[in-house]
Amino acid sequence: MRARIAVIGVLRALSRDRNGLIGGTLVAILVGAVLLSLAWTPYDPTAVDPNSPWLLPFSDGHVLGTDMLGRDQFSLILVGSRETLVIALVSAGIAAALGVPLALAAALGPRRFAAGVVQLVDVAIAFPALLTAMILAAVFGGSVWTTASAIGVAFGVHLARIARAEIERVAGTDYVLAAAASGSSTGRTIRRHILPNIAPTLLVQLSLVMAVASLTEAALSYLGYGSPAPAVSWGRILHDQQPYISARPLLVVWPGLAVALTVLGFNLLGDALRDATDPRLRHGGSGAVAKADGERAVRAIRPPAAVAGALLEITDLTIRIAGRTVVDGVDLTLAPGERLGLIGESGSGKSLTALAVLGLLPEGAEATGSIRLDGAELLGRSERELARIRGDRVAMVFQEPLTALDPTMRVGRQIAEPLRLHRGMTRRRADEAAIELAARVGLPDPADLVRARPHQLSGGQRQRVGIAIALACRPALLIADEPTTALDVTVQRDILALLDEQAREQGTALLFITHDLAVVSSVSDRVAVLRGGRTVEQGPLETILHDPRAPYTRALLAAARATAFAPIEAPAEIPTDSVEAAS
């Protein structure tokens, strides 16, 4: 049902695109010619009639005339379309089957293996498709499969190079990182997030493969390297008529026009399909679904149950990247239901510390020390073991809500994904739960909004979706990495209130990362200050604000005074006068 709806949506988008209409019509004519030739042709295309050579169009029932052997030109064009379509489809299939796995291996594989794949692709690109096809035809004889294989392999390596760059771009986006943080396996992330997002590029490239395959087949057959007689193709027709071009130019007009229109059709249809399959281009970034995000969630304070023992223990955490120490001996503890603010300037190691908890450090980073969740060591765990924890026991809200959401997926599907991964819910039940979660985080008209895509929502609504995804499985620990930085002040207040409310309702511990003292004072029980990858100071919020001991912490407070720092909105149990005193 969903596939049918998606196909209908693409067809509607194509019908509104002039290039899509023209390209689709030309390709439909090609397919129609192939189907018609299988059932009927006006004359036998291989039948020679010495009494009817060189007939002009519309003479004696021959729509396009006859050639020097009296063969009907229209019948030859119809039958020749078969080889063109077969070669185009087979070439595109081989190119995709070869190029996409090579691109995935080069972009996501181990470094040495990826480097080997890249070198292999670079060497293969040195051999032109036409030359490769000519060599294979000379060795194995011309045929549809020889031509299609040569074109498919040659363009498969070109596709691998282009797709690799796209995969690396998509793999570095926040929404792929967010999918991993939700517990998605590598294979699932590739299927659900990477391949759909590179599909527009693949469609354009494969349409080019089909266009060039049609042109290359005609060129090979014209040069005598195509399928031998009595096989009929448009290139073979051009080859046969070549000696008579000066005397009978119309003989090459019809097959030449067929090749040109086919190439044009594939190109136009590929461009239109790219636009039709990319929701950001199809919807034009309309905000029709979005409504004002000024509403605030009702604060329901429910103190978390007291639980003995630490939930998260980070001991002597050291992270090195390319031989440089970026986090140096960080120690943090977080009790169940506690709210810890992690504050520091850019480059202080805040985000890397959080990513280390989830096992999502960038490639090449080395972490030592200890990270224990409920007493269980996380450092050294396998990717499969960490995937079971991410999104379930530990979840994360990212800084930029637009880039943290997959632009090709409806937001309801993204909210439902952790529930299907970790709770084993059916799609229908997970979709229903997604609507409930959307309502819980204060999204307006949740039943309608879950069908929207990220670009159709306001910034505050997108961040609420991110919070719904993170809280879907009721994690024990929620990491919020500067979730209000990209939002305006009014929406910041609402998001902070929502995080505070949901964490209290679920008894979830909160690790809140920020560089803003006003924000940290609004959501934290304790504060840890980082600088240069080291823990400078940590303690209760009021102690840090009233009686900081580290010079760096005092400098932060002095800077806050200079910028007229005041809290956005402090929860009821944290007196605002404590913050004002620090000002």
UniProtKB/TrEMBL annotation:
Key word DNA-binding present: no
Example GO biological process: transmembrane transport
Subcellular location: Cell membrane; Membrane
Cleaved signal peptide residues: none
GO CC, alphabetical: plasma membrane
Domain ABC transporter: residue ranges: 312-557
A molecular function (GO) term: ATP binding
Name this polypeptide is given: ABC transporter ATP-binding protein
